[in-house]
Amino acid sequence: MTDQTSDQGALELASLIRASRRAVVFTGAGISTESGIPDFRSRGGIWTKMMPINFDEFVASAEARRESWRRRFEMEGTWNKVKPNAGHNAVAELVRLGRVTHVITQNIDNLHQDSGISEEQIIELHGNTRYAKCLDCGQRMEIANVRKHFESYGEPPDCSACDGIVKTATISFGQAMPEVEMERATRATLACDLFVVLGSSLVVYPAAGFPLLAKRNGAQLVILNREPTEQEQYADLALHGEIGPIMGAAVNAL
Ligand code: NAD
Ligand code: ZN
After folding, report:
1. Which residues are catalytic?
2. What residue segments make up the domains of the chain, in order of their start?
């Protein structure tokens, strides 16, 4: 394992990318902080102010559902405003260049899509907060329509197709992982020869299992994070610094 300064690190990362035939990028909340979305751990962030509503509670209680939707509507201004940053753009460039086959993300913010990467190359392990879905039949519903209904009736609507419960298309604590995405992520991980983690503390499982799976399967593992992560000891290259500048420099050095 090597631990480098940012400039040196970017060059080392570039050379690993050059040597790789199929890389996978794995992102966490840290890639989006430069867009103004607080990560999970930052003090005073939105995620620390309120106890998360877990899945069982959401399903069991109409009041929990109302509270969950109230919180979601409060965030709408932020979600509509946020834009991809230098880190997202560098990843999108690596995808365009054919260096990166897939981006596996724990983020729910849609910023990889907004950076121009196609849905086929994005795997969202924890879903997406930018739209809603019926928990029973999976039918998609737009947040603006849920909001209109909520403002008129004080309740979120039921699914128009099956009367099921409508929830943001995210995976809550206590909710089962999405099967198709888990399978796609496993396939991409096993096919890659380089696995690059950007901005994840690697404590949330099963998502945090993918870097280890890649490593055990013979891929090189790179972890770029502001602070040391839980999987530092497995990394072939561990970089501590800001994602935007380091990824930008790495892409420029290709
Ligand atoms: P985390 O908050 O546990 O870890 C993020 C890591 O990124 C931290 O170790 C932090 O030091 C680092 N970091 C922050 N900004 C950075 C930067 N500019 N450059 C380099 N490193 C930086 O996040 P996680 O591992 O993704 O797990 C949190 C869970 O919360 C995830 O499951 C995710 O679904 C959810 N979440 C999502 C978002 C989002 O969609 N943007 C935001 C917060 C939380
Ligand atoms: Zn339905």
Report:
1. 126
2. 1-37+84-126+177-254, 39-81+127-170
